[in-house]
Design a protein that fits this description.
The structure holds two protein chains of two kinds. Chain A is mostly helical. Chain A has one domain (3-500). Chain A contains 22 helices and four strands. Chain A is globular. Chain B has 20 helices and two strands. Chain B has helices at residues 3-9, 11-30, 36-60, 79-97, 107-126, 130-148, 155-186, 191-225, 233-240, 243-281, 291-294, 301-329, 335-355, 360-392, 403-406, 408-422, 428-443, 454-483, 496-514, 516-525, and strands at 66-67, 72-74. In chain B, helix 3 (36-60) runs antiparallel to helix 4, helix 9 (233-240) crosses helix 13 (335-355) and helix 12 (301-329) packs antiparallel against helix 13. Chain B is globular and about 75 Å long.
Chain lengths: 501, 528
């Protein structure tokens, strides 16, 4: 399974060396590398049933400081590696029409994928941090070179926010390493080092906020809508689908895994907030509702999806803060589910609609009557929208249900307020659906004539393939969630039990 | 001390001086009528061979150093050997970058001045005596002033050199005056004895003199490493000097100056060790301290005033440099000035390490690792800037537009080097920072108590925050090279030797960054 990292980086290097004027070569090469990665991820996932934590590679990297090149995976990691595999393949399928500097595009793309695989498979905190930071630079270039609206601003904002978040994590990493005696940086060693509670009390929020910035935690989420809108389709799919999960994974693995006593009650309570757990749970809940409300007011189609990502990541963070089995299970499942669904949504908005109509403004899309001219896009969006709303049968339902049950057990008010967010979620999805595709107005004669002149290009096979892949995943998980939960549950149990020490 | 000992101990410097003379002989004696580029190549080659011979001489000279019978004048081995080998290696690289240049028709004189300045740097790294320090410092500095002025056709070069010279001359005066106060307080010029004596005198009422002396010395040495507020020469010098000279100033003189600061730190700590031994011998019960515990114990004013005062001064210089250097670089439109302000910022990070020298071996290894790798990366950066300048005529951000199309290999090298300077893993710049900050944090109250360690933690947090700021301006240059459309898409050609050197540097940055233990264990092997 760890070969995914190697082949992605090797693929990135080779892609950069491919000739610049042969985009076809670059596309097929990148697809081959991504499919190989997906195959390895699926094989690794299948082999991991009932395995618990597997250690793949453990080499001493810097012996004098106890830093290990440790690659390991438990159920949570395997699920997320699987997500990365699926998202990477579909991202490449939806970038089939990139013609400018194609080899460099796929080089940066594969480098980003390699970094993401690395984070999910790291068993050593230093190694996790290295991969986490490696992922920042390709994101900047992908958005800045191939993006659309305000791409240079969006790219720089995203890069700086991510770097600040990782700087906070670095401070926490160094402090934890030194406080634990400077022997080793492996996650297992740091978790069992018995860090004092007073230390954990300040280190936990620092690291959690550091990772939370990348996870789109309110109020540090402002990079996300701008960045997602500015990014090219494949980058948006990856960013919202996988990279935001890096932040949530860090919150779980490093924040909760290493500093569990940071979540203990402070002893004093202020307006019902008595611990960092309460603080971050409320921030998550605010994020859910705020993201949904702001999405409701957008005039740009892609911004709706961008803010909906913030809202759905709020669910993930809420699930993490419930600290019970079912809530955290739901959080991990939501990471997977939202990764697929967000990928599908951004693919429709970006590749299927925008690349053909060259606009994302509702005011301009409404008169285009896309339900008649692009039925594939319209009905796929219905499918993806239903999944995003959290209707049963799709993966989002299972995940959100688990999170809400877990939240109810922790603090019922959180569930009630999040419920509001779900209702608003339905509202903005329907609004987008109606305004972009199914508008009420009948076409005027002038518009009919214009349509004859500007026929929209047909749907290409990579788009069909990508939609099929993502759609199938969300359906399968929605109808048979045990396929993922069987691996997630034992891993979460172990992680929460470790924190109970 | 006899002259055989002197000759043996200074074999590396002698090799450099002989090489300098040979360069002059070849260039002025035989090649007077030859084409400039042939003269450049021959002079550079002789210089590189001289540096290689000097590296061999470092090993041949042994690890005993030079003593005048009563106390050592020059040390050898440990940090000194690492610094000297690094200086020679970096000098060789800057000489290789010379091959493609057109700024002078007197390459022989240029190379010989470089070699002599490098010899000065070697002396500083090894010096244990105040006067030897000053001699080495002046040898290095005078060479650097001349090198800055070497582009005779450029007004910028002359202006930069004059500013550098005036500022440097004044700093040297401050330094010497500070040294004279220390001599007055202690009666000796041997570093540990100076510190011991100065501290004794200070605790008997002479402490204002000691404070003034430390501040003056900080002024003099802060100038050499371009620390705020003694940094004013750096932007102009980096901008006006010819690219190979700027590379030399940015790398070799920095490594030498930091090696000097390490020597001072070692000497101060040796004084503390002597003090503790004296306490133990005189039967003080609470002095069953080991050096490690000294770091945790509360310093009392009388016993720690030199060490404490010096650390405080270094902390202030470090914070000022980190903050000002990074913030000022944000506003630059000239890449050379950007590199100058970033050099000030990096000096700030290294000074942070030097301020916490409780375990000298660990800290000096981290500082040397940072200084050497920073020097390597900077030489590469100036190499790239030099190539772009020669092709486009200016070093403004706009001359980098579309570099990925005009010369993809050069753009890739630029990407690697600038990301390393910003501290992005898995490149060497990241490891240097991580290592240094980890060393700073483990110096003080490492272990379960973080109470005494609040100041280092806050300083490291500030350093990391400033490092995050620095990503912005490095990305600005990379943005011009990769993202923004080119203004002119004629290909940029670079001399094959220059490209080979730059690619080798970039490869080293990547490989040593992925396998940090390589360089680290090499450095540690000198301490055994």
């Amino acid at each position: 399974m760890t070969w995914t990292i190697t082949i992605s980086f090797a693929g990135a290097l080779l892609a950069a060396l491919l000739p610049k004027d042969k985009p076809v070569l670059a596309r097929w090469f990148a697809l081959a590398v991504a499919v190989a990665g997906l195959a390895l991820a699926v094989a690794g996932y299948a082999a991991g049933f009932g395995q618990g934590r597997q250690v793949f590679v453990d080499a001493l990297w810097v012996p004098s400081m106890g830093i290990h090149f440790l690659l390991a995976a438990d159920g949570i990691s395997r699920v997320l590696v699987l997500l990365t595999g699926i998202a990477s393949v579909s991202g490449i399928l939806f970038s089939w029409n990139v013609d400018l500097r194609t080899n460099q595009f796929f080089a940066f793309y594969l480098a980003l994928i390699g970094g993401v695989y690395g984070v999910f498979l790291s068993g050593d905190l230093f190694l996790l941090f290295v991969f986490y930071e490696i992922a920042i630079v390709p994101k900047y270039f992908l958005i800045a070179i191939w993006g659309s609206t305000r791409r240079e601003y969006g790219a720089m904002k995203l890069a700086l926010y991510s770097f600040v978040g990782s700087a906070m994590v670095l401070i926490g990493l160094l402090a934890a390493y030194v406080t634990a005696g400077a022997h080793s940086t492996t996650l297992a060693a740091l978790a069992s080092a018995g860090l004092p509670v007073s230390f954990q009390m300040w280190c936990f929020p620092l690291v959690f906020v550091g990772f939370g910035i990348l996870a789109g935690m309110w109020p540090f989420h402002t990079w996300a809508p701008t960045g997602h809108v500015a990014a090219p389709t494949a980058a948006s799919m990856l960013l919202a689908g996988v990279v935001m999960k890096l932040g949530a994974y860090g919150c779980l693995r490093v924040g909760i895994g290493l500093f569990p006593h940071g979540l203990d009650p402070w002893g004093v309570s202020f307006l019902g907030i008595g611990s960092w757990r309460d603080v971050f749970a409320w921030l998550a809940v605010i994020g859910i509702v705020y993201g949904a409300l702001v999405a409701l007011a957008q005039t740009d189609f892609k911004f709706v999806i961008g803010y909906s990502s913030v809202s759905h990541m709020g669910f993930v963070l809420l699930g993490l803060m419930t600290l019970n089995q079912i809530g955290v299970d739901g959080a991990v499942l939501q990471m997977f589910s939202h990764g697929i669904i967000a990928g599908l949504l951004f693919a429709i908005v970006g590749r299927v609609v925008y690349d053909r109509t060259h606009t994302r403004q509702f005011a301009e899309l409404e008169p285009m009557h896309l339900s008649r001219r692009l039925p594939f896009a319209a009905w796929t969006f219905v499918f993806a929208g239903i999944a995003s709303m959290g209707l049963p049968g799709f993966s989002g339902f299972v995940a959100e249900l688990q999170i809400l049950v877990g939240a109810w057990r922790a603090n019922p008010i959180w569930t009630v307020v999040s419920g509001v967010g779900i209702v608003v979620g339905v509202a903005y999805t329907w609004r987008a659906l109606q305004k972009a595709f199914f508008s009420d107005k009948l076409p005027t004669a002038h518009e009919l004539e214009a349509e004859q002149h500007h026929k929209l290009p047909p749907i290409t096979w990579p788009e069909y393939a990508g939609v099929a892949l993502l759609g199938a995943c969300t359906l399968i998980v929605g109808l048979y969630p045990s396929i993922l939960l069987d691996q997630i549950e034992p891993a979460v149990k172990t992680l929460l039990a470790g924190g109970a020490q | 001390m006899n002259y055989v000992d002197l000759f043996r101990a200074t074999l590396p410097e002698t090799a450099l001086e002989i090489a300098a003379l040979l360069v002059l002989v070849f260039d002025l004696g035989f090649l007077r009528k030859a084409a400039t580029n042939i003269r450049m190549e021959v002079a550079a080659m002789v210089g590189v061979v001289g540096c290689a011979a000097a590296i061999g001489a470092v090993f041949a000279a042994g690890w005993d150093g030079l003593s005048n019978g009563r106390y050592p004048l020059l040390a050898a081995g440990g940090p000194v050997a690492v610094a000297q080998i690094a200086i020679l290696f970096l000098t060789a690289l800057t000489l290789l970058l010379l091959i493609d240049s057109e700024f002078t028709r007197n390459p022989g004189e240029y190379v010989s001045v470089v070699l002599m300045a490098a010899a000065g740097g070697m002396i500083i790294s090894a010096a244990q005596d105040l006067l030897v320090i000053f001699v080495g410092l002046e040898l290095l500095s005078l060479g650097l002033y001349i090198l800055t002025a070497f582009a005779k056709k450029s007004g910028n070069s002359a202006e930069a050199a004059l500013k550098y010279y005036l500022f440097g001359g004044m700093s040297a005066a401050f330094l010497l005056f500070g040294f004279s106060y220390l001599y007055g307080l202690s009666g000796s010029t041997y570093l540990p004895r100076v510190i011991f004596g100065a501290n004794n005198a200070a605790s008997h009422g002479g402490s204002p003199l000691l404070v003034i002396a430390l501040i003056m010395i900080a002024a003099g040495l802060g100038f050499k490493v371009a620390a705020v507020p003694f940094h004013f020469w750096a932007p102009d010098t980096y901008e006006g000097a010819p690219a190979p000279a700027a590379a030399f100033i940015a790398s070799v003189s920095k490594v030498a100056s930091f090696a000097l600061l390490i020597s001072i730190g070692h000497a101060a700590l040796r004084y503390l060790q002597i003090l503790i031994e004296l306490w133990q011998r005189s039967g003080h019960t609470h002095a069953a301290h080991s050096v490690t515990v000294v770091g945790n114990a509360q310093p009392t004013a009388a016993t720690m005033s030199v060490f404490y005062g010096w650390s405080l001064i270094l902390v202030i210089l470090s914070v000022a440099s980190m903050v000002f250097g990074n913030l000022a670089a944000l506003a630059q439109s000239s890449v050379r000035r950007l590199l100058a302000y970033s050099a000030i910022a990096h000096a700030g990070y290294i000074l942070l390490g030097l301020a916490f020298m409780f375990w000298p071996n660990r800290m000096s290894q981290a500082v040397l690792y940072y200084a050497v790798t920073y020097g390597l990366t900077t030489i590469g950066a100036f190499g790239v800037v030099g190539v772009v300048e020669r092709a486009t005529g200016s070093d403004k951000l706009d001359s980098f537009l579309g570099l990925q199309k005009r010369n993809p290999l050069l753009a890739a090298v630029l990407l690697v080097l600038f990301l390393s300077l910003a501290g992005i893993p898995p490149l060497i710049g990241f490891w240097a920072k991580f290592n240094l900050f980890a060393a700073v944090l483990s110096m003080s109250g490492g272990g379960m108590r973080m109470g005494g360690g609040l100041l280092p933690l806050a300083l490291v947090a500030l350093a990391i925050a400033m490092s995050a700021v620095s990503l912005y301006y490095y990305l600005q240059v990379l943005k011009r090279a990769f993202v923004m459309p080119e203004a002119d898409d004629t290909p940029i050609k670079a001399h094959p030797v220059t490209m080979a050197v730059l690619i080798a540097i970039a490869a080293a940055v990547v490989v040593l960054g992925c396998f940090p233990a390589l360089l680290q264990s090499w450095i540690a092997s000198f301490y055994a």
